[in-house]
Specification:
9 helices, rod-shaped, 0% strand, mainly alpha
Length: 314
């Protein structure tokens, strides 16, 4: 009985340990059979000697490698092309590629800007010389007591003041024998006013051109802008695309016309306002000269009538 129980325990122990051992041996890779157990290849029948098909390795498409390499190779080229395009997209290139109407607008505005700066240089020189001369002649005739002395002080130099003195002398000579001093002064004042107005017209020559350029240049540039944008929309309709690369050149050319219009208009307005102030100060000097000539004429008239009265009293 004891032996029987002992055998049963041994059998139970072996049975319980068998699945664990089998589970430990199952992950191991199967051992290859010894080479000696395999029949030689020569002994196989002809059908058995047919080589097995090679494992199907996925072949890349002929252009796959080039497509994969394209971004790395073409990226520098595309960047260089874009940089070249940016360098060529300059105001000069936009002007050359613009429509004939937009190009004509740009040329006209550039010519207007050239006229503005030419008038600025010429008028600055003219007004500087005229103001300096007027101050000098006013200083020369300041101590003069009569029209004749003032003419001698000025000499043969022609100026607005010399024209005023000549007008006063002419009116005094034409009015000889007339006892009405007020009439002589009125006629002389009328002559002085004509000379002052003529000098004002002369000194303002060119300022009307500045005013015209300053007032019309923005609208002329706007006309070029509208025309260029209209051409851009026509190009969009023909190309049937809204790509920015198709629209951008025409819009850039149109905006360039507006920019040139502003470049012509802004300096013209500033220069016009500056010359308006300078011209006003010069005309004040001319009015001072007119007043000086009128005072000299009044002295001569009083002196003449005083001498006549003194001789009559004697």
């Amino acid at each position: 009985m004891f032996r029987t129980v002992l055998k049963l325990l041994v059998v139970l122990t072996v049975v319980s340990s068998a699945p664990t051992a089998f589970a430990q041996q199952s992950p191991a890779a199967p051992q290859p059979a010894p080479a000696a157990s395999q029949p030689p290849a020569q002994s196989l029948p002809p059908a058995a000697q047919v080589p097995a098909p090679a494992a199907s390795v996925p072949q890349a498409a002929p252009g796959a490698a080039s497509v994969a390499d394209t971004p790395a190779e073409t990226a520098p080229k595309s960047l260089k092309a874009a940089a070249a395009t940016l360098r060529e997209f300059s105001p000069w290139s936009m002007f050359l590629s613009a429509d004939i109407v937009v190009k004509s607008v740009m040329i006209g505005l550039a010519f207007a800007s050239l006229m503005t700066w030419t008038i600025f240089i010429a008028k600055m020189i003219e007004l500087s010389i005229a103001q300096g001369r007027m101050r000098r002649v006013l200083k020369k005739i300041a101590p003069s007591r009569s029209l004749a002395e003032a003419q001698l002080a000025l000499g043969d130099k022609s100026s607005v003041l010399s024209s005023l003195l000549d007008a006063a002398m002419r009116e005094a000579r034409l009015s000889a024998g007339i006892s009405s001093d007020s009439g002589i002064k009125e006629r002389a004042a009328s002559s002085f006013a004509e000379i002052v107005r003529a000098e004002a017209r002369r000194i303002r020559i060119g300022m009307s051109i500045l005013a015209t350029i300053g007032a019309t240049s923005p609208f002329v540039g706007l006309f070029g802008t509208v025309w260029g944008i209209m051409n851009s929309f026509i190009g969009i309709s023909k190309a049937q695309t809204t790509n920015l690369a198709v629209v951008a050149p025409g819009i850039a050319e149109a905006l360039l016309a507006t920019a040139i219009g502003l470049v012509a208009a802004i300096p013209a307005v500033i220069i016009y306002n500056h010359f308006a102030r300078v011209t006003k100060s010069y005309l004040e000097l001319v009015n001072r000269a007119s007043g000086a000539a009128a005072r000299l004429l009044s002295r001569d008239l009083d002196r003449t009538h005083g001498g006549v009265l003194s001789r009559a009293a004697e």
